[in-house]
Every structure is written in C-alpha cells, then in structure tokens.
C-alpha cells in the first residue's frame, strides 16, 4: 500500500495539511505570463521557487519553460530585494531581450514588503528598461489563495498593464480563457474562427507550451498574445471570460476601466458548457452559429445517447481546481453520472455552493470541500468507494491502493501526455474526454467481468 | 556507424569562453569569466570560482536550501514524518518529485514518503506568527500516525517572521516521549544553492539522530554509505553487490534509509563517501566523534565499482574478504564488458557534456569513457572549489558571508562511544601501500586538457555551447531537458535518470550503456526536417519523355 497510513476514520484537522490539492500562487502567475508573446516570467524571491515552478510546468508540458529569478540570498532578505530586481531587469534585457518581463512576487519578497511598483518605476526612470519594452508585475504571496488565484492576478495584471481605451473600436471580442491547456486555447480559437468572430485571447499558451521539434530552440516561441493585441483589448467589443476564479477579475477590470462589457461563464466543458460558450460568443460577436458547429454539437449528443448506459449512475470522485471542477461536475451530471466527492484546495465557499446546486437535481448531497486536501479526499473514497477518480497525477496513489480507475485531468499531470495536444473544451473536446472516460470504464469492466459474461461488443 | 566529424577540434577553448561571456554586462562577464575555466589537469589544477551567488536575472539551473535539505537529504527517509512549515508551495513541489526509491515491503514497515505534510501557512500566520499552528500540526501528525520521528522544515517566510521551530520541536519531543522531533532552519534564501541545505540537513541528522540507538547491529565488515540517494534504485544495486561480497551496510545516508539506520550508524567500521559534495563533513564528524575512518568510493562506472570494492576490502585487511571481492568482480564484469563491447561501435568517438549536481558531472564521465565517448565540457550546479580542484583546495577556500550563515558544528570524541577502528600504525601502514583516507580528487584532474569546466552553467551559456559544439548528448536536469532537445540533441537527465536506472554498480553500468546507445542513435533526431525542407528546390518532370 502506497498510502498505507491513511485511516478510514476521519479526524478533523485544523493545522496539518496532508497531500495538498493546490499549490502556491507564483506558479499560476508564471503559467499565465507564458501566454504573452516575447514575455519572460520573473520570480522575485529566492531561486528555489523559480526552479520548482519551472520544473513542475516542464514536467506537465514536456516543453521548455524559461523564467528568471531575483536569486535572493540572506542579505537581500534583510536589506530588501530592490537591488536584486534592478540588477535582474538590466541583465534580462541585455542577455535575453524579451518584449515583456512579467514579475511575480513570492512569500519571501512579500513578507519583507518589497514595493514592486516603486522598484520597477525606479528601474524605468534610471534607463534600465529599454525604449518600447515593458516590465509588469503581480503580487502573488504564497500564503494567500492558491496557484489558481496567482494565475488570476497575473492575467489581471497583463490586461491592466496594457489595455488602452483611446482609438477606434477594435471590433474584436476578448476571450479570457482561464487556466486551460494550450490545446484548449487552440480549440477555442478554432471555434471562434468557425463562428467568424475575431478574438483576442488573454493569455494564450498555444504554440508556446505545445511547440514542435524542429532543430531550433527559441526562448520566445511564436505563440502568445502580443503587446499590440493586448493594448487593443481596451477597445474590444466585449469580453467573454471563462471561469469565475481565473478570469473574472481581468474581465471586470476591462468592463470598469475600459467600458468593455463582460460576460463571465463557466468553462466550456461538455455539451451544456459549450452551448453556453457558443451562445455567449454569438451574442458578443453579433454573428449566427454556423452549421459546422451545429454538426459537431450533434455528434457529441449522438455519442452521449449511444453510450449513455455506461455512464448512467456511475459514481465519480473529483479533485482539482474550482473553475475546472465546476464545469466538469456539470458535464458529468449532464450525462447522468454521480459526482459524490469533490475537493479543491483553493479556498472559497462559492465553490461548495455552486457544486451543490449542480448536483442537487440528482437527489443526493455530495461531499464537497473548498480548501480541502487529498488526504480527506482519500478518506471519503475509503468510506464510500467510487467507480472512477478524476484528478491529477497525485491521484495515482489512491487509485492503486483502492483499485479504482483514474482519469487524469487538471494540474499537474506529470506521468501522462495528451493534455497539451488534445482539447477537453468544446464539442470535440467533449467527445475526446468521453472517449477516454468510456475507455477507462470499459477497460475495468473487461478486467473484472466473469468469463461467462465477457462481452465482445459494447 | 562511423564516428562523426568532430567540429570541436577546430574550436579554441579560450575563444569559446570569450563567446560565452560576450553578451553580458561588464560586471557579470567578469564574474562568469572566473567561473569558466579551460582545463589544465595536473597536481594543482587551475582555480575556479565556485559556490558564489547566482546572478539575479540570469536563468539558472540551481534550486534552494530547502530543496537541498528536505528534498535531497531527508527525501529518501521513509519512516520520518517530514512537515514543511510554510505556505503550501514548497511542500507541494518537494512531494515525490525526486526519484527516491525505497523498499518498505517488510511487515509493519512505515513509509511516509508518499505523503506531503505542510502547515499551509496563511496570511494571519505570517502576521501573528506560525508557532502555534506548527505545534498543532505536529500534534495532529503524532495523533494520526504515531511515527518514531517528526522533522520540521523552515521555508523562507518562517525565518523572516522568527518562528522558533527548534523550541517547538524540543517541546513536542519532551511532550511525546516516544517520538523524536527535530527541525531544520533551511529557509530557501540561505546560502547560494541547494548545497547549503545539504549542510543544514546533515548537521541536524548528525546532532539529533546518529548515536541514538546503541543496541548492537551485527556484521563482520560493517560500513556506512554516505552521499547515495537511491535515485532509480542505485542504492539497491550497490546493496546487492555489497551483500554478495559479505559486507554489511549499516546505513545509507540517505537512500532507502530508515530512522534506525541513522541512529545506529555510529557502530560501523568504515564510512564510504559517494557524493563528496553533499556529505564529506559528516564523514569528518563521524570520525571525530566515533572514530570511524572514511574513504572516497564511487559506484558509478564498472571499473570504478570494482576499484571501490577492492578499496573497501583492502581496508579490512582480511584475505577472505579480498578473495570474495575478487570473485564477485570476476563474476560480474564479463557481462558488463560484453555489453560495453556491443555498444561501443555505435558510441565510440561521440561527445557528451555534463552539467549536474555536485559530483554527478564527475562520476558519470567514467561511464561515458567506458563506451568510448569523449567529454567536451562539464560543470556543477552547486559545487564548491574542492569538487573541481580536489580536496587539497580546502585550505585555500575563503569563507564568504553566504557560507558563514551555514552552521558548522563543533565535534569532539564521544566519551562513551568513541572507538578508533584502526591504530595510527595500521593507518600509516595502509597509507604506505598507497591507500588513501579522506581524500577526493576533483573533477579537473580527471578531465582532458583544454576541455571546458564551467561552474553554475546557465541557459544562455548552454545554448551557446550547444550551437558551437553540437555534442551528441547533453546531461542536465528536467528544466534543461526540452530546451536542449529542441536543438535535436538528446538530453539525459542525471538527477532523475529520465525515470530509468539504476546506473550504479555493475547492472547499472549495463543499463547506462544501453540507454546512451539508444539516445545517441535514436532515429528521431533524423526527422527534424521534412523531406521538402531538406530539398526545397522546385522540381518537375517532362510530361513526354
């Protein structure tokens, strides 16, 4: 047993987190910054944070992730990190020549109270930031929120640092996709293009974290939203933001500061989620939905109808990030599956409320916890086993111990690939996801079925 | 397959060095220039600047003190509950990300390595102090798991707000009575790399655990293995070989280790040091306090393994053991050599660069040489000068402010447990035969003239090196892997082994030869250009011929 010490009996803990279902803000900020073209993320703190964040992102994407650090030693921790950041800014522009440096803080620089506004301003005034280049920042102390809120803070900073209201309307619709995979962002762009809606996606990691192998390495791959495009977000027709946790802050900022009206919807996982997204895009873009999209939608409906018996009533345990879990729970309920244990490490009571609402029509009360951990998640599973677990790589220990199949979803996925190439969003993404889910369920059935009832055809 | 044409022959290493630093601002260039050395092997190798601060803004390969302490040293101990005191990130990232394998299959064995324990500090803990929360967390861990030991690790903010983690640990230890509780002040900002964390970890294990259990452990020839972390099962293979020779391994610091092993380590008759960088001072302290002499060994490479086994046997001066060791070597080597011979036609003359750790960049050169490969450049991520220049450099190393912050502990002979294993005469007699105690030859002495030795390599310089030399394989870590591979050059991870291994010992050598053969000869590196990109001219044929 890999988690042999986990008892079935649940004892309330007040101080000890065991097997977290979240990580810290800066990694989210780093991921978001990678979705800006020519941007080098910079971690303001000691260098271990940056090393850990890069390692985790690299393992998840199997792609290069470049980021710099202020490399605090004890001296900087005592006297402040201003000198380190100023030196870093100078070195970064001289050596790597990025368009943008996106600085995020760590618990170290936040605790000593470094004022990034002032440090960066001073660097600009003393000529350390070349003409036309940019340094932006987000405050992401690790003792607040989670990787999800760090992502949200950096997305807001990206938008608010560049969006301009002067000039003529751009005619574009802003899409703030939230913490999705590069493959998902690609799929959203494809859908928008089928709809004929010109969009600006902030951030956009497609082409950055799923780049081809060509014999060339470049610090700044082709993908990512450009500074020019970012400036135009303030002149957009509308904003469609996906996910309250990841995207709402930036969308509301654009609405309040630039008068770009925003619609915040849940992530477009599954049939109903994608319907809401397509509808929001249709309204924002002022277009009609093309037949090609209706065709894709029909295929997903067809799949659900054909294979409904294998999903119906199956119990699921889910762990991950709030926006993703809400949309995924909604997707599972829509095909009559039963999500019974749902845990996110990110705090926020709205999460628990929203999940209860989604599950309510099924007539039972699920176990839901925001700010929970995977130790509790495991204990819930021990007390009430499920047919399938949906969550990140760390679930593989629970999966093996409890002999319950695992479908990998969320962040991080360290031991499998595909998430960077194949979408989960949209009707196509829904088809792919259900194909994988069905495969997991039927593979288990094929393993467990007695020989007398072993079926060839499903 | 014929050996490729070697571009490196045409390159002047001094010229390469100039190119590596040419783009830096003047001050940075000066510093980097003293960390890049054109090798001149000899009794006194050239001086290199090492163990100095990372330059802010330069994309570094290094990690932090916490990573060195919690991740590297304490990571592989299976029956200690390791609680990270701090915000959630540090605990999360060090959760199972280093490939320490452990054998916890024994009945009733404890294994907490699959768990991540954290106090998950929140804003109010930073403002009002986190000691109460830490105390409660230790209590909860004790109540749920009843482990024999609980360790606490400080993250950056803990040091800043001044939580006294050691006082909390002492209080809880006294309260429990049957659970050792100790703490590590390994805040990430300490020192200049993960190396600082190794020191902090080793010092505390030495202080709080070693010597705790006097109940005798048996074995005719007892040794400790220091600086072996069981990545990919390396320690399993070393243990297999030692066992076959009849040598009893009392403790490995810290691969596949248990609390009891550390606590009884003072009983061993010899300490064998693998990774000199991470632990040489523990070997010194074990000698001072308990009278255990130490020698440097290396189980990376077939010849190195054989040499190390002979050295251990020689130490014990027992003909029976010497004979047994020769038997084992004779039994194991033929298969290793057969595989090396089979692989060599495909690897001979190919080139490699190694930039890892604080000894791996040195040790792995042996394996490459065994299959005829050439090392163009190498360097360490977190080494000190002695790792490059050899132990004789120690007296010449100036202690700077960053090193002074790392605790050095004073050790004296334990009045009860000190027991010299060899008399002075016996030691002298051994040394007269050419046997060396407490010595370590640095990497430079064993690298060819005019190869490049680079401390704390960064991404920018790695890119230039690759473009200039186009090595056949590059060895580094996960952060570097995919960037290097975008060039069409395979990267072998020598921290995590790309989930392969073991590479230590005899079977490990076989694994490594095969793996390198696979990597440098993989067909995938020939697919980078599509046919139409390789031959882009428009072509046409006549309709009527």
What does this entry show, briefly?
With 458 residues, chain A is of the alpha/beta class. Chain A contains 17 helices and 14 strands.
Described by its quaternary structure, the protein is heterodimer
- Share of residues in helices of chain A: 40-55%
Q: How far apart are the first and last residues' alpha carbons of chain B, in Å?
A: 40 Å
Helix content of chain B: 40-55%
Structural class call of chain A reads: alpha/beta
Shape descriptor of chain B:
globular
Q: How can the largest sheet of chain A be summarized?
A: 5 strands, parallel
- Give the number of helices of chain B: 22
Instruction: Report the count of strand segments of chain B.
Output: 14
How much beta of chain B, percentage-wise? 5-15%
Unreliable runs of chain B: none
Percent strand of chain A = 5-15%
How many strand segments of chain A? 14
For the report, how would you describe the main beta sheet of chain B?
6 strands, mixed
Please tell me how large the radius of gyration of chain B is.
25 Å
Q: What do the pLDDT scores of chain A average to?
A: 98
Largest interface pair: A-B, 84 and 90 residues
